[in-house]
Design goal:
By secondary structure, this protein is mainly alpha-helical. It contains nine helices and no strands. Bound molecules: heme C.
Amino acid sequence: MMKTINMKKAIHISIVIIASMAIMSCSNTNSPNYQYMPNMYEPVGYETYGEYDIFENEMEAKLPAEGSIPRGWMPYEYENSTAGLELARTELKMTLPVTEENLAKGAQLYEIYCAVCHGTKGDGQGILMQREKFLGIPSYADPGRNITEGSIYHVQMYGLNAMGSYASQTNELERWQITQHVLNLMAALKGEAGLIVETMGEDAVNNLPQLIESAEETNGEEPVDN
Ligand code: HEC
């Protein structure tokens, strides 16, 4: 009698063990498990960069419509070519007013993006030049280069040979702020006077006639704003 009960028990236990092993063996830890009530996990709306049948190519993220302009971005009309550079060199003018703030911001950005190659003074002796990681970095005072506000802006937009573009790291305002700093570095290297800051300090009041004259020249030009 005792023996048969034990036998039955043993069979029951082994059935449970075999059944649970059979169920367990079906689970694959490499694939996602079952989801019960998936609405708890999955949003009803379309997720950014998600894949959905409803969209063309199943892509939620679309390319912007042709001709659209991102916020804070201004179209730049000069071509990425030697001709474009030469045109910008002579034609492209800075409309950003020269202020202490713009100069300070320009100096800061220059140290971040440009000084590694061009050097803090703009003499072409940055750390990467000294370590010979890059060669052929010119001094801004290089007499062979007629560097102008337009060319400084243009090379930041597109780069030039070994120099890369800074169009994705900086916005239009920042590129003109950097340009102001480069103009000042270039003037210092050449022993010329730098940009005149447009403030009305004591000195400025003494030079009032001159200031009015220069203000009239820049009149009607909108400051860059973004
Ligand atoms: C990776 C090193 C490197 C960095 C960083 C760099 N440049 Fe240059 N830059 C060069 C080289 C090399 C040239 C010379 C390109 C040539 O003429 O082939 C050059 C040329 C120039 C010129 C001369 C353009 C002309 O009219 O001939 C200007 C102006 C200039 N860079 C400004 C900048 C500014 C502003 C920055 C920062 C936003 C910057 N560079 C960052 C390497 C660099």
